[in-house]
Design a protein that fits this description.
The chain is α+β, with helices and mostly antiparallel strands. Among the domains are: 151 residues, 3-Layer(aba) Sandwich (Rossmann fold), CATH 3.40.50; 106 residues, Beta Barrel (OB fold (Dihydrolipoamide Acetyltransferase, E2P)), CATH 2.40.50.140. The protein is built from eight helices and 19 strands. A hairpin with a 4-residue loop joins strand 16 and strand 17. Helix 3 crosses helix 4 and helix 4 packs parallel to helix 5. The chain is globular, with a radius of gyration of 24 Å. The two termini are 44 Å apart. The C terminus is likely disordered. It binds adenosine-5'-triphosphate (ATP). The site of adenosine-5'-triphosphate has 11 residues, from strand 2 and helix 1.
Amino acid sequence: MNEILVRCHDVAKHFGPARAVDGLDLVLERGRLTALIGPSGCGKTTLLRLLAGFEALDRGWIELAGHRVAEHGRTVPPEQRRIGMVFQDYALFPHLTVAQNVGFGLRDARGREKRVAGWLERVGLGGLAERYPHELSGGQQQRVALARALAPEPELLLLDEPFSNLDAGLRARVRDEVREILEEAGTTVVLVTHDREEALTLADQVAVMGAGRILQVGSPEDLYRCPATPGVAALLGQVNLLRGEALGSVARCDLGEVSLLDPQRGPVLLMLRPEWLSLEPASHEGAPGACRVLRTTYHGAFWLVAVRLAAGTELRVQTQTRPRVRPGDRACVQAVHAAACWSQSAAPRESLAPARRPSGIPLAEGQPARVPR
Ligand SMILES: Nc1ncnc2c1ncn2[C@@H]1O[C@H](COP(=O)(O)OP(=O)(O)OP(=O)(O)O)[C@@H](O)[C@H]1O
């Protein structure tokens, strides 16, 4: 484990009746990138503002590099925290050139020009120092904002959805570039994002937030494979949910016997990602996994086939090649990967309850399918 840079303990911030942050605990290791992901309004931006010192907390404390920077009644101001921040809209100064923007936070005039030039080279904008923000593309503005935040060498960099204004093509490229720049600088980063792919691809650790608290923290792979609740599972990818009976390392369910990622006993809710399932055309009615095809959708790199099991459960299966089935066909679903599962006798408290939908309305992407009782 790396040295710990930030500790948040029981942090709370209320705005009147809105409990924006409500008893939050979080630890950030130095030099690592943490992606903070959660539904709209769960308190992500408020947490960044508390870390930066733009808000005073109501309860708990925050430590930065071993110093208590916030507790009830005491807040170290932002300029004394050595924290950099990049906002969604980059917030560049429109009347300052690229070089002046990047040099803005550098108090010491000695060597300023050299440092600014160095940062502009690092973010690939060496030739654009004298341009104004309106003369730059979105991706270039994003890199200026990053250089401006990094130039004073902050202990901690806070990124609030910094890629959301970029189109899909540019986004992937800028994201890769930013990752390289941050890795090279060795900066500790908190990245707020709504984009699960961004969270999974960029982060060393992912922190899932819901209703003002951290619901789960872990490596991208651990959270994707073993989410703590169905809501966490749905935030990080598409899910299929099935009821079953766990018998140790396997569980019995409508797909027959499926392996479990973690041994369990008793009634369980099973979670299988669409790519953890396979589909075979035709099946005997009543055989495990027997289903009817509802629809197929093309997603570029893969297809998704929606099917309904005899018991009524809707599942989505991902295929890498064009499916050999059409809507209305009989087929058979099988699990080709172990399932995650949650005990139903000691069900985890679900503060990220999946959104309810009226029957007949197609499931939104990432929303768990309904599981008939
Ligand atoms: N200055 C404020 N005054 C009153 N309520 C606020 C204020 N700032 C945030 N809130 C409320 O606190 C809650 C958390 O807001 P916050 O912006 O932190 O959420 P978020 O997770 O960043 O949302 P989003 O993903 O939509 O940006 C919301 O209910 C919001 O309305």
